[in-house]
Amino acid sequence: MNNGRKSVGILAVQGDFELHAKMLERLGVEWKLVKRPEDLVGAAALIMPGGESTTMLKFFAEEGLGPAVKEFAAAQGKPIFGTCAGAILLAREVLNPPQDHLGLLDVTIERNAYGRQIDSSVEQGDCPEISSEPVEMVFIRAPIIRRVGEGVRVLGRAGGLPVLVEQGNILAATFHPELTTDETIHRYFLGKIADGK
Ligand code: GLN
Q1: How many angstroms separate the CA atoms of 164 and 89, rounded?
Q2: Res. 119: pLDDT tops 90
Q3: Of 20, 84, 101, 110, which is the active-site residue?
């Protein structure tokens, strides 16, 4: 029950959705798991976690989640935050290999782009508009954003690459902010609900 308070949906078909739930608990924000289109009803925003985007796409097809998520963001204007695999799902174009996508964020993103040698890494990135301090960023079999469309703002960079981008109500990170104790990125996303953006 969420007693009519705004709750944030967390896509829970696969991946590390539980850590996003823990982060929202720490921030005192109501959340609900989203596995089917009807779970989006009453959600004020949606987080799409990291995991395996190909597996998530299978669930999207089985449950009819793609049109529902598009309607949630495009018609209802509700904020969506995609991390890693979630960011891949949001993109307008996916490489390595090309695959289905929601097209809500005008970027081209390349999967598993750091190569096998660097399966995961922790870097200090910069998000100057959000944080005056460096932000710890955990990358796991991460994608790289290869093209940023005109309407997309780069909010964070690491190693010279864009790693946190925003287009209106859509926010996407190629890293995993839920794996650190730093709440900065989640707080920024939650601000988009308050703004009604
Ligand atoms: N490599 C995964 C994919 O392509 C993403 C990895 C992640 O979410 N940590 O979907």
Answers
A1: 15
A2: no
A3: 84
Give me 2's structure tokens: 């969420």
Q: What is the pLDDT at residue 5?
A: 62
What are the pLDDT digits (tens) for 28-58? Answer: 999 999 999 999 999 999 999 999 999 999 9
Residue 143: is the preceding peptide bond cis (ω within 30°)?
Answer: no
The alpha carbon of 121 is separated from its chain's Cα centroid by a whole number of angstroms, namely 19
CA distance 1 to 48: 21
Closest CA to 85 of 101, 72, 69: 101
- Asked if residue 85 has its Cβ within 6 Å of ligand 1, the reply is yes
Cβ of 88 less than 6 Å from ligand 1: yes
